[in-house]
Specification:
The protein is of the alpha+beta class and 289 residues long. The protein is built from 13 helices and 8 strands. It is globular.
Length: 289
């Protein structure tokens, strides 16, 4: 059930708070795309007090959700992957109103998938992969098989997203359908993990081994954005300094683990700087090789 688009065009056209409006209809096979509503209206606003404002209502028998966001939040959602539906909204929605072609330009940028955005998303996905991979490894050693399985399944999901991004595409909501066409090998591992007749422990161990050989070899490529930040700095950076860097906000929680693994792989260098001579305390900082 659609909405009368002209009606909404009239409603928002003369509203000075509105920059752009997009309508996303609910595809029956993916109701989660619009939180179960018939139509999602994404409204880009210049009024910061309306940022993250939502309104749910019924009009002409259609269930409608209005989601108001300012431009910086829209771009942050795309960059951080806070709401994975955002990319789908922008690519599949119908633009009803678009001052200064804001949404059209954003859509073009998403389709182009520039290198800086791709590197940033690879770093996010790899940091999440790394955490889940090591958690699964620890659980399997302690014989917590179900916890190990849950974590390696999540790690495999991040691996699939890494492969999709490397291939120049944005990961969709239905990642496994997408990866099946792009990389049948990764999809096969997913099948082995979820449907094999081997024991659960054997399945987890198989995927852990595959991760060790395949994904860990991607560390330098996936961490290029972080390595570049270290190369650009004139002096070694502490963990605190890196966590405050605007380009690393989304991986802040995973930075200590990332830095540790990059040092062990000799992809970056760890330097110890004396900060208290009396107690011989050294602060660890990081720099490029």
């Amino acid at each position: 059930m659609g909405i009368d688009k002209e009606q909404y065009l009239l409603k928002f056209r003369n509203d000075p708070r509105v920059i752009s409006v997009m309508a996303v209809d609910n595809p029956k096979q993916l109701p989660s795309l619009t939180d179960g509503f018939d139509t999602l209206l994404l409204i880009v606003t210049n009024d910061l007090s309306l940022n993250n404002h939502t309104a749910n209502y019924i009009r002409d028998d259609s269930r409608i959700q209005e989601k108001w966001l300012d431009p910086s939040s829209v771009e942050q959602w795309i960059r951080q992957g806070v709401n994975r539906n955002m990319i789908q909204w922008l690519l599949k929605g119908e633009i009803l109103l678009d001052q200064n072609t804001y949404l059209e330009g954003l859509r073009h940028r998403i389709l182009e998938f520039p290198g800086d955005l791709r590197e940033h998303k690879l770093l996010i996905e790899f940091s999440l992969f790394l955490r889940k991979y090591f958690q699964s490894k620890e659980y399997i050693l302690d014989d917590h098989i179900l916890d190990a399985y849950n974590n390696i399944l999540e790690a495999l999901h991040h691996w699939a997203r890494i492969v999709i991004i490397e291939d120049g595409y944005h990961p969709e909501i239905t990642v496994w359908r997408q990866i099946r066409a792009i990389n049948p090998g990764v999809y096969k591992l997913y099948e082995e993990l979820t449907m094999s007749k081997e024991t659960l422990k054997q399945r987890v161990q198989l995927v852990l081994l595959a991760c060790e050989f395949s994904v860990m070899s991607k560390m330098e490529r996936c961490c290029a954005a972080l390595i570049h930040i270290l190369k650009e700095s004139e002096h070694p950076l502490s963990s605190d300094e890196l966590q405050l860097h605007p380009g690393l906000v989304e991986v802040r929680a995973e930075l200590p683990l990332l830095l540790n693994k990059l040092v062990k792989k000799a992809l970056i260098k760890e330097v110890a700087i004396l900060i208290d001579e009396e107690i011989s305390e050294l602060e660890l900082k990081y720099t490029s090789i």
